[in-house]
Amino acid sequence: MVQVKVFVQPHYLQNFVQATFNALGADKMKVLAENPSGATLVVSGDGRYYSKDAIQIIIKMAAANGLRRIWVGQNGLLSTPAVSAVIRERVAADGSKANGAFILTASHNPGGPNEVCARITSFLLSSVRHYGCACICSAPDFGIKYNMENGGPAPEGITDKIYSNTTTIKEYLIAEGLPDVDISKIGLSNFTGPDGQFDVDVFDSASDYVKLMKSIFDFQSIKNLLSSPKFTFCYDALHGVAGAYAKRIFVEELGAKESSLLNCVPKEDFGGGHPDPNLTYAKELVARMGLSKSGNNEDPPEFGAAADGDADRNMVLGKRLPYLNFRFFVTPSDSVAIIAANAVQAIPYFSGGLKGVARSMPTSAALDVVAKHLNLKFFEVPTGWKFFGNLMDAGMCSVCGEESFGTGSDHIREKDGIWAVLAWLAIIAYKNKDNLGGDKLVTVEDIVRQHWSTYGRHYYTRYDYENVDSAGAKQLMDYLVKLQSNLTEVNNIVKGIRSDVSKVVNADEFEYKDPVDGSISKHQGIRYLFEDGSRLVFRLSGTGSEGATIRLYIEQYEKDPSKIGRESQDALAPLVEVGLKLSKMQEYTGRSAPTVIT
């Protein structure tokens, strides 16, 4: 993804789209030859600024490139998981199915024509902290990605071709004479394109996805939970595309009160906010849950959740308890482990058992312990959902997740924020199936603490250094790689920083060989692995459009039941100090503190 001001430049979008069509050339010709009804593409996204213009351009280019039809979600809205579902599940009236999709999104990054600024005042919570008082400004982003026939992101072989094509492209094809399509109205529009009949089908954005969710979960069980006077619920779409599904699912299907929905009207600029589901940017949800610094006199909901811009990420919160001064935040690493541990009992889709589970390398090892306990196949993959997709297509993985608020299963080939929220509601409903009339419901905190008592607790935090000078970031990573060649020196440095930290027994750059296609992914993150199971992981992230982002992941595993109730920052303090000083973070970045701690 890049900044909006770059994408709106003349011919920029067109060149990228044509580069994609060219990369798909051989596959597209095969589809056209084998399918007399021609090729079909989905074109929609999270509704961010420039999406509507981009959709019209892509429609015209699709016609010029010989496609037969385009499917568009009403108003150009389809969540990333819904696009995957539409590709895999939807059959049009003429029997056609989608062959792929252009998804218009920049994920959890801000949108709109203007810079987004948020004033962050110093505060302290158990899972997210900011230091000082600062104005954090982000340039709005726009992005486009291509998903394949399986509903998942294009593999590296295709994305490499796309990139290569962008460096040599000399022309693009577009049917300029084709009129714009009114994407606000559901219906079929027929045109005569350069290669014959060309159709644009505008369809309801939510129907296919809602149907899929109802086939996975026991909606009646969840509805019973939501109807209990003892259970209250709050969902924040952050003005992203999740709002197009929230009312249909939570209110109309499950009976939640409409007042339980926050910011569920999709907006091109996400209401001037940053559509990232964390305690920093989901300010209204934090306030509703009784977590804001100013406090909240109303009784907070039992359960709160939020989505990002394209609805593939999620955050889950439990009720703030009287003896705590913070809400019960479920880390994404714990969330996927808890879902996997309870899926067979709580979610009908998995009643036959799990095929396997997987996590991204930076995600904590909580899922590993569940997999070992339940004798499940387990996979540790690089960051990127396409690696999960390969495992799912091969029937090797049912549930997967990543630490950056992404959780999903093999029902589609993308992470799925609403699915994750429904999974949590299903688990809560299952735990309370015989208790809805009792004095006290089993809560989010109860479920998490029971999980810790069974499997142990993985104390975990992530430090993000955003918009760091790229040269300094590269120097830091190069230094860490070089340091790995001498573990004796590493351990001398570690003991000089903290004598109470275990010794480093292994250090490497994570490399992954895909068990399905044999492909090898190198340089996927720098790891320092400690004797007691602790980990330090360093990665450069490329999801923003300015500078570099360094992510430092710190993990401490605790099996002693008497020690699983500590505050995360206390349990992790020794490793945090080692990570910052071992990497010379301040020296290379010039930063005395991270932008965000999660």
From TrEMBL:
<keyword id="KW-0460">Magnesium</keyword>
<comment type="similarity">
    <text>Belongs to the phosphohexose mutase family.</text>
</comment>
<comment type="function">
    <text>Catalyzes the reversible isomerization of alpha-D-glucose 1-phosphate to alpha-D-glucose 6-phosphate. The mechanism proceeds via the intermediate compound alpha-D-glucose 1,6-bisphosphate. This enzyme participates in both the breakdown and synthesis of glucose.</text>
</comment>
<dbReference type="GO" id="GO:0006006">
    <property type="term" value="P:glucose metabolic process"/>
</dbReference>
<dbReference type="InterPro" id="IPR005844">
    <property type="entry name" value="A-D-PHexomutase_a/b/a-I"/>
</dbReference>
<keyword id="KW-0413">Isomerase</keyword>
<feature type="domain" description="Alpha-D-phosphohexomutase alpha/beta/alpha">
    <location>
        <begin position="8"/>
        <end position="117"/>
    </location>
</feature>
<protein>
    <recommendedName>
        <fullName>phosphoglucomutase (alpha-D-glucose-1,6-bisphosphate-dependent)</fullName>
        <ecNumber>5.4.2.2</ecNumber>
    </recommendedName>
</protein>
<comment type="subunit">
    <text>Monomer.</text>
</comment>
<feature type="domain" description="Alpha-D-phosphohexomutase alpha/beta/alpha">
    <location>
        <begin position="333"/>
        <end position="433"/>
    </location>
</feature>
<dbReference type="InterPro" id="IPR005845">
    <property type="entry name" value="A-D-PHexomutase_a/b/a-II"/>
</dbReference>
<dbReference type="Pfam" id="PF02878">
    <property type="entry name" value="PGM_PMM_I"/>
</dbReference>
<dbReference type="Pfam" id="PF24947">
    <property type="entry name" value="PGM1_C_vert_fung"/>
</dbReference>
<dbReference type="InterPro" id="IPR005846">
    <property type="entry name" value="A-D-PHexomutase_a/b/a-III"/>
</dbReference>
<dbReference type="InterPro" id="IPR016066">
    <property type="entry name" value="A-D-PHexomutase_CS"/>
</dbReference>
<keyword id="KW-0597">Phosphoprotein</keyword>
<dbReference type="GO" id="GO:0004614">
    <property type="term" value="F:phosphoglucomutase activity"/>
</dbReference>
<keyword id="KW-0313">Glucose metabolism</keyword>
<dbReference type="Pfam" id="PF02880">
    <property type="entry name" value="PGM_PMM_III"/>
</dbReference>
<feature type="domain" description="Alpha-D-phosphohexomutase alpha/beta/alpha">
    <location>
        <begin position="208"/>
        <end position="317"/>
    </location>
</feature>
<dbReference type="InterPro" id="IPR036900">
    <property type="entry name" value="A-D-PHexomutase_C_sf"/>
</dbReference>
<dbReference type="InterPro" id="IPR045244">
    <property type="entry name" value="PGM"/>
</dbReference>
<keyword id="KW-0119">Carbohydrate metabolism</keyword>
<dbReference type="Pfam" id="PF02879">
    <property type="entry name" value="PGM_PMM_II"/>
</dbReference>
<dbReference type="InterPro" id="IPR005841">
    <property type="entry name" value="Alpha-D-phosphohexomutase_SF"/>
</dbReference>
<dbReference type="InterPro" id="IPR016055">
    <property type="entry name" value="A-D-PHexomutase_a/b/a-I/II/III"/>
</dbReference>
<dbReference type="GO" id="GO:0000287">
    <property type="term" value="F:magnesium ion binding"/>
</dbReference>
<keyword id="KW-0479">Metal-binding</keyword>
<dbReference type="GO" id="GO:0005829">
    <property type="term" value="C:cytosol"/>
</dbReference>
